[in-house]
Amino acid sequence: MTNIEPLGFVCGTKGDSVSFLANKETCLSFGQIVRIESGERTFYARVVNSESSSTLELIEQLREAEGKEAFGPYSAYRSVDAILFLEKRLGKVRSPTFNPNYRDKVYAASEEDCSILKLSGELEVGRLRSEDQLLGSVGINIDAIPRMMGMFGMTGSGKTNTELILNAQIIDNSPKTVALIFDFAGQLLEGKEIKPQCGLKDHPLFHSKVQYYSSRDGKMAIGLHTITPAKLDMLFPDIQPPQRRLAWELYRHFGAEWIDRARDIYRNEGNVTIRAQKVVTEALMQKLLSLPHDLFPASAYTFIDNALQNICKGVSCLVDISGLRSEDQNRVVCLLASAIAAHYKRMWEENYEEWRKLPTLLITLEEAHEFLDPNKSRTIFSDIALTYRKYRVGLNAVTPRPSRINFDVFAELWTKVIMKTELKKDRAYLTENTPYMEYSETEIKMLDVGEALLISEPKIKFAVPVKVSHYPEYLAKHSKVDYALPDSPPLSELDSRIKQLRSQDNVSLN
Ligand SMILES: Nc1ncnc2c1ncn2[C@@H]1O[C@H](COP(=O)(O)OP(=O)(O)OP(=O)(O)O)[C@@H](O)[C@H]1O
Ligand SMILES: [Mg+2]
Questions:
Q1: Are 311 and 207 in contact (CB under 8 A)?
Q2: Residues 36 and 94 in one domain
Q3: 510: confidence class by pLDDT, cuts 50, 70, 90
Protein backbone atom coordinates (compact mmCIF):
# COMPACT_ATOMS: atom_id res chain seq x y z
CA MET A 1 0.00 0.00 0.00
CA THR A 2 1.40 3.42 -0.82
CA ASN A 3 0.96 6.56 1.13
CA ILE A 4 2.38 10.01 0.61
CA GLU A 5 5.05 10.52 3.27
CA PRO A 6 5.78 8.34 6.30
CA LEU A 7 5.23 9.90 9.75
CA GLY A 8 8.38 8.31 11.07
CA PHE A 9 10.08 4.99 11.72
CA VAL A 10 9.93 2.35 14.44
CA CYS A 11 12.71 2.69 17.01
CA GLY A 12 11.63 -0.01 19.43
CA THR A 13 8.91 -2.56 20.18
CA LYS A 14 7.91 -4.53 23.24
CA GLY A 15 4.88 -6.80 23.27
CA ASP A 16 1.97 -4.83 21.82
CA SER A 17 3.70 -1.49 22.40
CA VAL A 18 5.59 0.26 19.59
CA SER A 19 7.75 3.39 19.80
CA PHE A 20 8.55 5.41 16.74
CA LEU A 21 10.51 8.56 16.05
CA ALA A 22 8.37 11.12 14.31
CA ASN A 23 9.80 13.04 11.36
CA LYS A 24 10.06 16.80 11.71
CA GLU A 25 6.93 18.74 10.71
CA THR A 26 4.61 15.76 11.09
CA CYS A 27 1.28 16.41 12.74
CA LEU A 28 0.04 13.81 15.20
CA SER A 29 -2.60 13.60 17.91
CA PHE A 30 -3.42 11.36 20.87
CA GLY A 31 -5.61 8.47 19.82
CA GLN A 32 -4.70 8.75 16.14
CA ILE A 33 -4.60 5.51 14.17
CA VAL A 34 -1.33 4.78 12.38
CA ARG A 35 -0.28 2.05 9.97
CA ILE A 36 3.08 0.32 10.17
CA GLU A 37 4.39 -1.54 7.13
CA SER A 38 6.43 -4.52 8.23
CA GLY A 39 7.33 -6.87 5.37
CA GLU A 40 4.32 -8.97 4.46
CA ARG A 41 2.49 -7.74 7.55
CA THR A 42 0.71 -4.45 8.03
CA PHE A 43 0.04 -3.40 11.61
CA TYR A 44 -2.43 -0.86 12.91
CA ALA A 45 -1.79 0.97 16.17
CA ARG A 46 -3.21 3.84 18.22
CA VAL A 47 -1.04 6.71 19.47
CA VAL A 48 -1.14 6.74 23.27
CA ASN A 49 1.83 8.81 24.37
CA SER A 50 4.56 11.11 23.10
CA GLU A 51 7.77 12.58 24.43
CA SER A 52 10.19 15.07 22.97
CA SER A 53 13.74 15.69 24.05
CA SER A 54 17.27 16.03 22.76
CA THR A 55 20.41 13.94 22.95
CA LEU A 56 21.99 16.56 25.23
CA GLU A 57 22.25 16.11 28.99
CA LEU A 58 19.96 18.32 31.10
CA ILE A 59 22.85 20.49 32.29
CA GLU A 60 24.02 20.99 28.70
CA GLN A 61 20.50 21.94 27.61
CA LEU A 62 20.32 24.54 30.39
CA ARG A 63 23.67 26.06 29.61
CA GLU A 64 22.85 26.28 25.94
CA ALA A 65 19.42 27.82 26.69
CA GLU A 66 21.09 30.45 28.87
CA GLY A 67 23.51 31.23 26.03
CA LYS A 68 26.52 30.40 28.20
CA GLU A 69 27.92 27.63 26.08
CA ALA A 70 27.25 26.08 22.66
CA PHE A 71 27.07 22.32 22.38
CA GLY A 72 26.92 20.38 19.24
CA PRO A 73 26.26 18.64 17.12
CA TYR A 74 23.18 17.18 18.83
CA SER A 75 19.72 15.91 17.78
CA ALA A 76 16.30 16.88 19.00
CA TYR A 77 13.65 14.20 18.61
CA ARG A 78 10.04 13.33 19.28
CA SER A 79 9.31 9.74 20.19
CA VAL A 80 5.76 8.46 20.05
CA ASP A 81 4.26 5.39 21.76
CA ALA A 82 1.50 3.46 20.06
CA ILE A 83 -0.40 0.29 20.98
CA LEU A 84 -0.98 -2.35 18.32
CA PHE A 85 -4.53 -3.54 17.80
CA LEU A 86 -4.75 -5.17 14.39
CA GLU A 87 -2.62 -7.01 11.88
CA LYS A 88 -3.18 -7.67 8.19
CA ARG A 89 -1.34 -10.51 6.59
CA LEU A 90 -2.03 -12.20 3.22
CA GLY A 91 -5.35 -10.38 2.98
CA LYS A 92 -6.50 -11.58 6.42
CA VAL A 93 -7.22 -9.14 9.21
CA ARG A 94 -6.93 -10.24 12.84
CA SER A 95 -5.52 -9.33 16.26
CA PRO A 96 -1.73 -8.94 16.13
CA THR A 97 0.26 -12.16 16.20
CA PHE A 98 3.63 -10.38 16.31
CA ASN A 99 5.05 -6.87 16.33
CA PRO A 100 6.87 -4.59 13.86
CA ASN A 101 10.58 -4.42 13.33
CA TYR A 102 13.17 -1.73 13.98
CA ARG A 103 13.04 0.97 11.24
CA ASP A 104 9.70 -0.15 9.80
CA LYS A 105 7.92 2.89 8.36
CA VAL A 106 4.92 4.43 10.06
CA TYR A 107 2.11 6.15 8.10
CA ALA A 108 -1.04 8.08 8.99
CA ALA A 109 -4.24 6.05 8.36
CA SER A 110 -5.85 6.75 4.99
CA GLU A 111 -9.28 6.26 3.39
CA GLU A 112 -8.07 2.86 2.18
CA ASP A 113 -7.25 1.83 5.75
CA CYS A 114 -10.78 2.79 6.75
CA SER A 115 -12.18 0.07 4.53
CA ILE A 116 -9.62 -2.50 5.76
CA LEU A 117 -10.58 -1.72 9.35
CA LYS A 118 -14.26 -2.28 8.41
CA LEU A 119 -15.47 0.70 10.39
CA SER A 120 -18.64 1.52 8.49
CA GLY A 121 -22.02 0.17 9.58
CA GLU A 122 -25.74 0.40 8.82
CA LEU A 123 -26.18 3.04 11.52
CA GLU A 124 -23.56 5.69 10.86
CA VAL A 125 -22.25 7.48 13.93
CA GLY A 126 -19.74 9.78 12.23
CA ARG A 127 -16.38 9.83 10.47
CA LEU A 128 -12.95 8.58 11.46
CA ARG A 129 -10.76 11.34 12.92
CA SER A 130 -7.16 11.25 11.84
CA GLU A 131 -5.30 14.30 13.16
CA ASP A 132 -7.04 17.28 11.52
CA GLN A 133 -8.74 15.23 8.81
CA LEU A 134 -12.03 13.36 8.68
CA LEU A 135 -11.79 10.06 6.82
CA GLY A 136 -14.38 7.36 6.01
CA SER A 137 -17.69 6.59 7.66
CA VAL A 138 -17.80 4.89 11.07
CA GLY A 139 -20.93 3.14 12.25
CA ILE A 140 -22.51 0.20 14.00
CA ASN A 141 -24.64 -2.58 12.64
CA ILE A 142 -28.25 -3.30 13.47
CA ASP A 143 -27.24 -6.54 15.14
CA ALA A 144 -25.23 -4.46 17.64
CA ILE A 145 -28.48 -3.01 19.05
CA PRO A 146 -29.45 -6.00 21.20
CA ARG A 147 -25.85 -6.29 22.35
CA MET A 148 -26.57 -3.19 24.45
CA MET A 149 -25.04 0.26 24.24
CA GLY A 150 -23.84 3.09 26.42
CA MET A 151 -23.18 6.77 25.69
CA PHE A 152 -21.06 8.64 28.19
CA GLY A 153 -19.89 12.23 28.37
CA MET A 154 -20.02 15.29 30.57
CA THR A 155 -22.51 18.14 30.13
CA GLY A 156 -22.19 19.70 26.71
CA SER A 157 -20.00 16.94 25.26
CA GLY A 158 -22.58 16.04 22.59
CA LYS A 159 -24.62 13.14 24.00
CA THR A 160 -28.02 14.48 22.90
CA ASN A 161 -26.71 15.09 19.39
CA THR A 162 -25.41 11.51 19.23
CA GLU A 163 -28.78 10.19 20.47
CA LEU A 164 -30.50 12.16 17.70
CA ILE A 165 -28.15 10.83 15.03
CA LEU A 166 -28.58 7.23 16.10
CA ASN A 167 -32.34 7.35 16.59
CA ALA A 168 -32.85 9.22 13.31
CA GLN A 169 -31.27 6.25 11.53
CA ILE A 170 -33.32 3.77 13.53
CA ILE A 171 -36.37 5.64 12.21
CA ASP A 172 -34.91 5.53 8.69
CA ASN A 173 -34.50 1.75 8.98
CA SER A 174 -38.09 1.15 10.16
CA PRO A 175 -39.69 -1.41 10.22
CA LYS A 176 -36.45 -3.36 10.59
CA THR A 177 -35.65 -1.25 13.64
CA VAL A 178 -37.65 0.83 16.08
CA ALA A 179 -36.81 3.25 18.90
CA LEU A 180 -38.30 3.82 22.33
CA ILE A 181 -36.85 7.06 23.66
CA PHE A 182 -37.27 8.37 27.19
CA ASP A 183 -36.64 12.10 27.15
CA PHE A 184 -36.14 13.44 30.67
CA ALA A 185 -35.28 17.00 29.71
CA GLY A 186 -37.87 17.37 26.94
CA GLN A 187 -35.30 18.35 24.35
CA LEU A 188 -35.31 15.69 21.67
CA LEU A 189 -38.55 16.74 19.95
CA GLU A 190 -37.34 20.23 19.17
CA GLY A 191 -33.62 19.79 19.83
CA LYS A 192 -33.62 22.74 22.22
CA GLU A 193 -29.88 22.76 22.83
CA ILE A 194 -28.78 21.81 19.35
CA LYS A 195 -27.56 24.76 17.32
CA PRO A 196 -29.14 25.48 14.85
CA GLN A 197 -32.21 24.20 16.69
CA CYS A 198 -33.70 21.03 15.20
CA GLY A 199 -35.02 17.83 16.71
CA LEU A 200 -36.85 14.62 15.86
CA LYS A 201 -39.91 16.61 14.71
CA ASP A 202 -37.77 17.82 11.80
CA HIS A 203 -37.00 14.28 10.68
CA PRO A 204 -38.58 13.72 7.25
CA LEU A 205 -40.39 10.59 8.50
CA PHE A 206 -41.57 12.13 11.78
CA HIS A 207 -45.26 12.17 10.85
CA SER A 208 -45.42 8.59 9.65
CA LYS A 209 -42.82 6.81 11.77
CA VAL A 210 -42.75 8.58 15.14
CA GLN A 211 -45.36 8.95 17.86
CA TYR A 212 -44.79 11.63 20.48
CA TYR A 213 -46.20 11.22 24.00
CA SER A 214 -46.08 14.01 26.54
CA SER A 215 -47.60 14.45 29.97
CA ARG A 216 -48.55 18.00 29.03
CA ASP A 217 -51.25 17.09 26.50
CA GLY A 218 -52.89 14.54 28.81
CA LYS A 219 -52.11 11.70 26.39
CA MET A 220 -49.76 10.05 28.82
CA ALA A 221 -52.28 8.45 31.17
CA ILE A 222 -52.00 5.07 32.86
CA GLY A 223 -55.48 4.03 34.04
CA LEU A 224 -55.58 2.61 37.56
CA HIS A 225 -57.67 -0.32 36.31
CA THR A 226 -54.71 -1.53 34.28
CA ILE A 227 -52.48 -1.79 37.33
CA THR A 228 -52.32 -5.25 38.85
CA PRO A 229 -50.47 -5.95 42.12
CA ALA A 230 -47.71 -7.55 40.01
CA LYS A 231 -46.82 -4.06 38.77
CA LEU A 232 -46.51 -2.52 42.22
CA ASP A 233 -42.76 -3.19 42.40
CA MET A 234 -42.33 -0.91 39.43
CA LEU A 235 -44.41 1.85 41.00
CA PHE A 236 -42.98 1.54 44.51
CA PRO A 237 -39.50 -0.01 44.57
CA ASP A 238 -39.54 -0.03 48.40
CA ILE A 239 -42.75 -2.09 48.77
CA GLN A 240 -42.55 -4.86 51.39
CA PRO A 241 -43.92 -8.44 51.10
CA PRO A 242 -46.82 -7.96 53.62
CA GLN A 243 -48.02 -4.93 51.62
CA ARG A 244 -47.79 -6.95 48.43
CA ARG A 245 -49.88 -9.73 50.01
CA LEU A 246 -52.52 -7.22 51.10
CA ALA A 247 -52.59 -5.79 47.58
CA TRP A 248 -53.24 -9.25 46.12
CA GLU A 249 -56.10 -9.80 48.56
CA LEU A 250 -57.64 -6.46 47.66
CA TYR A 251 -57.27 -7.35 44.01
CA ARG A 252 -59.00 -10.71 44.49
CA HIS A 253 -61.76 -9.00 46.40
CA PHE A 254 -62.44 -5.94 44.21
CA GLY A 255 -61.07 -7.00 40.81
CA ALA A 256 -59.54 -4.51 38.35
CA GLU A 257 -60.92 -1.52 40.28
CA TRP A 258 -59.12 -2.49 43.48
CA ILE A 259 -57.01 0.68 43.85
CA ASP A 260 -60.02 2.97 43.35
CA ARG A 261 -62.27 1.07 45.69
CA ALA A 262 -59.69 0.58 48.43
CA ARG A 263 -58.78 4.28 48.32
CA ASP A 264 -62.45 5.33 48.65
CA ILE A 265 -63.08 3.03 51.59
CA TYR A 266 -59.85 4.04 53.27
CA ARG A 267 -60.65 7.73 52.87
CA ASN A 268 -64.16 7.27 54.37
CA GLU A 269 -63.50 4.67 57.04
CA GLY A 270 -59.77 4.88 57.74
CA ASN A 271 -59.48 1.17 56.96
CA VAL A 272 -60.01 -1.35 54.16
CA THR A 273 -62.39 -4.30 54.26
CA ILE A 274 -59.56 -6.83 54.27
CA ARG A 275 -58.07 -7.69 57.65
CA ALA A 276 -54.45 -6.80 57.96
CA GLN A 277 -52.06 -5.20 60.43
CA LYS A 278 -52.72 -1.49 60.74
CA VAL A 279 -49.15 -0.53 59.79
CA VAL A 280 -49.31 -2.67 56.67
CA THR A 281 -52.64 -1.18 55.59
CA GLU A 282 -51.39 2.32 56.26
CA ALA A 283 -48.13 1.80 54.41
CA LEU A 284 -49.86 0.37 51.33
CA MET A 285 -52.67 2.94 51.30
CA GLN A 286 -50.24 5.87 51.64
CA LYS A 287 -48.48 4.56 48.57
CA LEU A 288 -51.68 4.12 46.56
CA LEU A 289 -52.94 7.56 47.61
CA SER A 290 -49.70 9.15 46.42
CA LEU A 291 -50.39 8.27 42.76
CA PRO A 292 -51.32 11.59 41.07
CA HIS A 293 -54.77 11.71 39.39
CA ASP A 294 -53.72 13.28 36.12
CA LEU A 295 -51.14 10.59 35.37
CA PHE A 296 -53.05 7.69 36.99
CA PRO A 297 -56.78 8.40 36.41
CA ALA A 298 -59.50 5.94 37.46
CA SER A 299 -59.95 4.39 34.03
CA ALA A 300 -59.12 1.33 31.98
CA TYR A 301 -57.16 3.27 29.32
CA THR A 302 -53.40 3.17 29.29
CA PHE A 303 -51.12 4.84 26.78
CA ILE A 304 -48.80 1.86 27.24
CA ASP A 305 -51.05 -0.32 25.03
CA ASN A 306 -50.96 2.30 22.33
CA ALA A 307 -47.17 2.64 22.55
CA LEU A 308 -46.77 -1.14 22.41
CA GLN A 309 -48.87 -1.36 19.23
CA ASN A 310 -46.80 1.39 17.66
CA ILE A 311 -43.50 -0.25 18.56
CA CYS A 312 -44.64 -3.56 17.04
CA LYS A 313 -45.53 -1.73 13.80
CA GLY A 314 -42.12 -0.06 13.65
CA VAL A 315 -43.38 3.36 14.76
CA SER A 316 -40.81 4.82 17.15
CA CYS A 317 -42.09 6.33 20.40
CA LEU A 318 -40.66 9.51 21.89
CA VAL A 319 -41.81 9.70 25.50
CA ASP A 320 -41.31 13.18 26.95
CA ILE A 321 -41.41 12.90 30.73
CA SER A 322 -40.03 16.36 31.49
CA GLY A 323 -42.09 18.27 34.03
CA LEU A 324 -43.11 15.14 35.98
CA ARG A 325 -41.93 14.57 39.55
CA SER A 326 -38.92 12.28 39.54
CA GLU A 327 -40.84 9.40 41.25
CA ASP A 328 -43.48 9.63 38.52
CA GLN A 329 -40.82 9.74 35.79
CA ASN A 330 -39.38 6.52 37.18
CA ARG A 331 -42.84 4.95 37.31
CA VAL A 332 -43.74 5.77 33.71
CA VAL A 333 -40.34 4.69 32.42
CA CYS A 334 -40.30 1.36 34.26
CA LEU A 335 -43.95 0.46 33.50
CA LEU A 336 -43.63 1.20 29.79
CA ALA A 337 -40.23 -0.43 29.30
CA SER A 338 -41.25 -3.57 31.15
CA ALA A 339 -44.55 -3.92 29.23
CA ILE A 340 -42.73 -3.70 25.91
CA ALA A 341 -39.81 -5.92 26.93
CA ALA A 342 -42.25 -8.50 28.33
CA HIS A 343 -44.14 -8.52 25.02
CA TYR A 344 -40.95 -9.28 23.05
CA LYS A 345 -40.11 -12.06 25.52
CA ARG A 346 -43.60 -13.55 25.39
CA MET A 347 -43.65 -13.53 21.61
CA TRP A 348 -40.25 -15.23 21.49
CA GLU A 349 -41.51 -17.95 23.82
CA GLU A 350 -45.01 -18.41 22.44
CA ASN A 351 -45.07 -17.28 18.83
CA TYR A 352 -41.60 -17.38 17.37
CA GLU A 353 -42.69 -16.69 13.79
CA GLU A 354 -44.50 -13.51 14.84
CA TRP A 355 -41.54 -12.52 17.00
CA ARG A 356 -39.28 -12.67 13.95
CA LYS A 357 -41.42 -9.98 12.34
CA LEU A 358 -40.95 -7.59 15.28
CA PRO A 359 -38.54 -4.72 14.67
CA THR A 360 -35.25 -4.78 16.57
CA LEU A 361 -35.83 -2.39 19.48
CA LEU A 362 -33.45 0.16 20.98
CA ILE A 363 -34.53 1.77 24.25
CA THR A 364 -32.72 5.07 24.84
CA LEU A 365 -32.54 5.84 28.53
CA GLU A 366 -31.11 9.16 29.65
CA GLU A 367 -30.16 9.52 33.30
CA ALA A 368 -29.32 5.81 33.14
CA HIS A 369 -27.33 5.99 36.39
CA GLU A 370 -30.62 6.53 38.23
CA PHE A 371 -31.85 3.14 37.04
CA LEU A 372 -28.65 1.11 37.03
CA ASP A 373 -27.09 2.26 40.30
CA PRO A 374 -25.65 -0.70 42.24
CA ASN A 375 -26.73 0.97 45.51
CA LYS A 376 -30.39 1.24 44.52
CA SER A 377 -32.99 -1.48 44.10
CA ARG A 378 -32.94 -3.42 40.82
CA THR A 379 -35.01 -2.11 37.93
CA ILE A 380 -36.29 -3.57 34.68
CA PHE A 381 -33.32 -1.96 32.88
CA SER A 382 -30.71 -4.13 34.53
CA ASP A 383 -32.81 -7.17 33.58
CA ILE A 384 -33.00 -5.95 29.99
CA ALA A 385 -29.24 -5.35 29.83
CA LEU A 386 -28.46 -8.74 31.31
CA THR A 387 -31.01 -11.03 29.70
CA TYR A 388 -32.97 -9.52 26.80
CA ARG A 389 -30.30 -9.90 24.11
CA LYS A 390 -31.92 -12.92 22.52
CA TYR A 391 -35.30 -11.20 22.32
CA ARG A 392 -33.76 -8.35 20.23
CA VAL A 393 -34.43 -5.71 22.87
CA GLY A 394 -31.46 -3.38 23.29
CA LEU A 395 -30.72 -0.72 25.86
CA ASN A 396 -28.82 2.49 25.21
CA ALA A 397 -27.76 3.76 28.63
CA VAL A 398 -26.92 7.48 28.39
CA THR A 399 -25.27 9.18 31.35
CA PRO A 400 -22.60 11.68 32.30
CA ARG A 401 -21.70 9.45 35.30
CA PRO A 402 -20.60 6.02 34.02
CA SER A 403 -18.98 5.15 37.36
CA ARG A 404 -22.48 5.01 38.87
CA ILE A 405 -23.53 2.17 36.57
CA ASN A 406 -23.67 -1.29 38.05
CA PHE A 407 -20.53 -3.18 37.01
CA ASP A 408 -22.37 -6.28 35.71
CA VAL A 409 -24.53 -4.12 33.47
CA PHE A 410 -21.56 -2.04 32.32
CA ALA A 411 -19.76 -5.20 31.25
CA GLU A 412 -22.76 -6.12 29.06
CA LEU A 413 -22.64 -2.86 27.05
CA TRP A 414 -20.81 -4.08 23.97
CA THR A 415 -21.09 -0.79 22.12
CA LYS A 416 -19.77 2.29 23.86
CA VAL A 417 -19.65 5.86 22.64
CA ILE A 418 -17.31 7.71 24.97
CA MET A 419 -17.27 11.49 24.81
CA LYS A 420 -15.34 14.11 26.79
CA THR A 421 -15.28 13.18 30.48
CA GLU A 422 -13.34 15.25 32.99
CA LEU A 423 -14.10 13.54 36.30
CA LYS A 424 -11.18 11.27 37.10
CA LYS A 425 -13.38 8.69 38.78
CA ASP A 426 -15.51 8.32 35.66
CA ARG A 427 -12.52 8.22 33.34
CA ALA A 428 -10.86 5.55 35.45
CA TYR A 429 -14.07 3.50 35.49
CA LEU A 430 -14.40 3.75 31.71
CA THR A 431 -10.83 2.79 30.94
CA GLU A 432 -10.49 0.06 33.56
CA ASN A 433 -13.69 -1.70 32.59
CA THR A 434 -13.65 -1.41 28.80
CA PRO A 435 -11.43 -3.69 26.73
CA TYR A 436 -8.86 -1.86 24.55
CA MET A 437 -9.30 1.38 26.49
CA GLU A 438 -6.62 0.95 29.12
CA TYR A 439 -4.34 3.60 27.59
CA SER A 440 -6.98 6.20 26.76
CA GLU A 441 -7.61 7.98 30.05
CA THR A 442 -5.85 11.21 29.08
CA GLU A 443 -7.42 11.18 25.65
CA ILE A 444 -10.94 11.05 27.08
CA LYS A 445 -10.26 14.26 28.98
CA MET A 446 -9.05 16.06 25.88
CA LEU A 447 -11.88 15.24 23.46
CA ASP A 448 -13.69 18.20 21.90
CA VAL A 449 -17.47 18.66 21.57
CA GLY A 450 -18.87 15.97 19.25
CA GLU A 451 -15.67 13.92 19.32
CA ALA A 452 -15.90 10.39 20.66
CA LEU A 453 -14.22 7.05 20.99
CA LEU A 454 -16.34 4.20 19.67
CA ILE A 455 -16.10 0.51 20.50
CA SER A 456 -18.65 -1.93 19.13
CA GLU A 457 -17.79 -5.53 19.82
CA PRO A 458 -17.42 -7.93 18.15
CA LYS A 459 -17.16 -5.80 14.97
CA ILE A 460 -15.01 -2.92 16.20
CA LYS A 461 -12.63 -4.26 18.80
CA PHE A 462 -10.60 -1.14 19.46
CA ALA A 463 -11.34 2.44 20.39
CA VAL A 464 -11.99 4.28 17.13
CA PRO A 465 -11.62 8.07 17.24
CA VAL A 466 -14.80 9.46 15.68
CA LYS A 467 -16.24 12.87 14.91
CA VAL A 468 -19.96 12.33 15.42
CA SER A 469 -22.12 13.75 12.61
CA HIS A 470 -23.95 16.92 13.62
CA TYR A 471 -27.71 16.36 13.53
CA PRO A 472 -28.54 19.60 11.62
CA GLU A 473 -26.13 18.51 8.86
CA TYR A 474 -27.59 15.00 8.84
CA LEU A 475 -31.06 16.49 8.31
CA ALA A 476 -29.84 18.74 5.54
CA LYS A 477 -28.47 15.67 3.74
CA HIS A 478 -31.48 13.44 4.35
CA SER A 479 -34.37 15.87 4.03
CA LYS A 480 -35.44 14.55 0.66
CA VAL A 481 -37.37 11.35 1.37
CA ASP A 482 -38.07 8.81 -1.27
CA TYR A 483 -41.64 7.73 -0.58
CA ALA A 484 -41.37 5.20 -3.44
CA LEU A 485 -44.44 6.62 -5.18
CA PRO A 486 -44.73 5.95 -8.93
CA ASP A 487 -43.65 8.87 -11.09
CA SER A 488 -46.50 11.12 -12.14
CA PRO A 489 -47.21 11.02 -15.90
CA PRO A 490 -45.60 13.78 -17.95
CA LEU A 491 -47.63 16.95 -18.55
CA SER A 492 -48.00 16.28 -22.28
CA GLU A 493 -49.70 12.96 -21.47
CA LEU A 494 -52.08 14.70 -19.02
CA ASP A 495 -52.79 17.36 -21.62
CA SER A 496 -53.87 14.88 -24.29
CA ARG A 497 -55.97 12.99 -21.70
CA ILE A 498 -57.81 16.23 -20.79
CA LYS A 499 -58.40 17.00 -24.48
CA GLN A 500 -59.82 13.50 -24.92
CA LEU A 501 -62.19 13.95 -21.94
CA ARG A 502 -63.28 17.37 -23.23
CA SER A 503 -64.14 15.99 -26.65
CA GLN A 504 -66.14 13.18 -25.00
CA ASP A 505 -67.99 15.83 -22.94
CA ASN A 506 -68.76 17.76 -26.09
CA VAL A 507 -70.06 14.64 -27.75
CA SER A 508 -72.32 13.77 -24.83
CA LEU A 509 -73.54 17.38 -24.51
CA ASN A 510 -74.57 17.48 -28.15
N1 LIG B 1 -20.93 16.34 16.54
C2 LIG B 1 -21.14 17.63 16.75
N3 LIG B 1 -20.72 18.54 15.86
C4 LIG B 1 -20.93 19.86 16.07
N5 LIG B 1 -21.57 20.38 17.15
C6 LIG B 1 -22.01 19.52 18.07
C7 LIG B 1 -21.82 18.10 17.93
N8 LIG B 1 -22.38 17.49 18.99
C9 LIG B 1 -22.90 18.47 19.76
N10 LIG B 1 -22.69 19.68 19.22
C11 LIG B 1 -23.14 20.97 19.77
O12 LIG B 1 -22.72 21.05 21.13
C13 LIG B 1 -23.76 21.51 21.98
C14 LIG B 1 -24.01 20.53 23.12
O15 LIG B 1 -24.42 19.28 22.60
P16 LIG B 1 -25.46 18.31 23.34
O17 LIG B 1 -26.67 19.05 23.74
O18 LIG B 1 -25.64 17.15 22.43
O19 LIG B 1 -24.61 17.92 24.63
P20 LIG B 1 -25.04 16.96 25.85
O21 LIG B 1 -23.87 16.10 26.14
O22 LIG B 1 -26.33 16.29 25.55
O23 LIG B 1 -25.22 18.00 27.04
P24 LIG B 1 -26.13 17.82 28.36
O25 LIG B 1 -25.39 16.87 29.24
O26 LIG B 1 -26.16 19.20 28.89
O27 LIG B 1 -27.46 17.31 27.94
C28 LIG B 1 -24.97 21.74 21.08
O29 LIG B 1 -25.09 23.12 20.81
C30 LIG B 1 -24.66 20.98 19.83
O31 LIG B 1 -25.24 21.61 18.67
MG1 LIG C 1 -28.21 16.24 26.57
A1: no
A2: yes
A3: very low
